[in-house]
Structure formats: C-alpha cells, structure tokens
Amino acid sequence: MKAVIQREFGDVNVLSYEDIDIPKIGENEVLIKAAYTSVNYADIKKRVGNKGKGKFPLILGLDVAGTVEKAPTNSNLSKGDRVIAFPTSGSYAEYVVANELLVFKIPEHLELEQAATLPTVSILSYILLHDIGQVKPTDTIVIHSAAGGVGSTLVQLAKLLGVQKIIGTVGNLEKESYVKKLGVDVVCTYETFTEEVLKQTNNQGANVIFDSVAGEVTSRSLGCLAFYGTLVQFGNSSGKAGTFKTSDVHSSCRNIKGFSLGTTRKHNPEQLAPVAEKVLGLFASNKISIPIAHIFNLEDVAQAHKLIESRNYHGKVLIKI
C-alpha cells in the first residue's frame, strides 16, 4: 500500500511517499480502507518535533474516513461499513488500523468527504462546549482562533445552543467576515480582545473562554474572565505555555480546566462514542458543517502541510487517499 513515512523531525522534506505492507490487526482492532484524512495543526507539531520524541519511522495523521475492510468477530462493524476513526498509528496511508472503540459508523445521508472534516475538531468541540465549559445560553463566551477547525465548529455549536454573545478572536481581520457568517457576534484580534470583552460585558468579563493558543493569550484571557468564569485550555498553537498564579483564581472563584482529545482517546475511549453519534447526526442533518479549504492527493501531502503552516485558509484541509 501507499503511505507517507517520516524518519526524522524537520520540514516538509522529511515526508516520504512510499510503498509499505498493509498493517495486520490485533484483538479488538479494525482494518480500514482509507478514503480521506484531515490535516491538523498537531500533525505539523509532530513533524517538526514539538510533540516530544518520535518513534521512527512513523506515519502522521489523527483521523480517517473510509470503509471497514476487516473487523473483529462479534463486532457491530462489518466489511463495507462507512466509518470515521482515530487510527492507532497514523492515517496518511491507504489502510489503517484502529481500536474498535474508536471507530464510528457514518449515517447514510452523510458523504464521506464531509464526514472526513469532523472527527477530531467536532468531537473535541462538542466535549469542550458541553462537558468542560458547561456553556449556558445566557453566557458570554470567547472563542480564540475562531476561524480554525475547532474554533469554527465551536462557534456553530454555541450558536445551536443559543448562546447570548459569542466573541471570536482571529490572527488576521481578513477572516472577520468568515467567522461572522458562522455566528460570531464580535470579532477581535489577539491584541485587542481583552479590552473589547470588558467593553461588551460592562466590565464583568466573559463567562467561558476557550483557549487553544496559550502563551500571552492565556494571561490576557484571565484579564477579561468573569467572577466564577471558566478558562478552558486545550492547546498551545503559539508554541508557548500559558501561565497563571493561584491568586488569579481563588479570590475570584474562577477556574481553569484542561482537556486533551489525545489523552481521552488513550485513557477513556468509551467517552467518545456517544459524542461521535451526536456530532455525526448534526452533520447528517446539516445543522452544522465545516467548509473544505482544499483537498490534496496523498503524494502531495507536503503542499497540505505548507497550507496549514501558512494559516491562510478557512475550514479543513483534507488528503484524498
């Protein structure tokens, strides 16, 4: 089968398009013939070495959409089932293996191409909004990186929930019209959002802030988080850790919650099936959608990574296998 292999950290030139053997499945595992995989910023971080040590050779990629080739005996999955999944060892390949707990059937009326946009960003967004942030319709919320995959999904889910005021941040105001179409009420840059949030809330601050950027954005977020508010921290795309002091939270009754989809896939995969069913249903009924920025062929994965690194796109970047 064809796959993209990485043997060292570095720029896009470390990605090699090769022939390798089709992987074997073990107990409780599913072999999936891949149709599409999405490219996530986590792939870039892993490629360059920002995600810790790499066990080479490796295959990048967090999620896949495709069809079941082989399933365990007595599984609710059968050959030919259309599924999304979180593979065990990457998804930039024609065939991938996934734990059956991390394989979810696609509803009949949802196209594979659209299903491929959703596994990582939509399941993560749903958990962040409903379980971690516990957002209520009366809340004012801030969504950092609102034009990104998770950000744009969070906006749509918050709108579906009927959230009173959604404030979104972007790195470039050229993305303002895009995020406003999604449902953002007020658009700010990372430099101006603290003052704007206070202005929009009568100096009370936002009830929930979703932060995937970290670094200085974390401290600026604490500068406009309301009493009893929640800062949800789920990434550090800035490449820097966000910091806070205990005095930032205890006297104001605020809290900081962290969440990682990767950790949950590893340690609590059972949590994801009901969420996957809900978001797949939302996509199948056209209640939310994620625009596709570009679809690359597997051999052109380097171009996909360059587009992600440019941040000059809206929606999801897919690879057609």
Could you characterize the architecture of this molecule?
With 321 residues, the protein is α/β, with parallel strands linked by helices. The protein has 2 domains: 2-117 and 290-320, Medium-chain alcohol dehydrogenases, catalytic domain (Quinone Oxidoreductase, Chain A, domain 1); 121-262, 3-Layer(aba) Sandwich (Rossmann fold). Helix content is 28%, strand content 26%. The chain contains 10 helices and 15 strands. It has helices at 41-48, 112-115, 119-132, 149-161, 176-182, 193-200, 216-222, 261-267, 272-284, 301-310, and strands spanning 2-6, 15-19, 29-39, 64-70, 82-85, 95-99, 103-105, 140-143, 165-170, 186-189, 206-211, 225-233, 255-258, 292-297, 316-320. Strands 3, 4, 5, 6, 7, 14 and 15 form a 7-stranded mixed sheet that branches. A 6-stranded parallel sheet has the order 10-9-8-11-12-13, with helices on both faces. Strands 1-2 form a two-stranded antiparallel sheet. The chain is globular. The mean pLDDT is 95. This is Zinc-binding dehydrogenase.
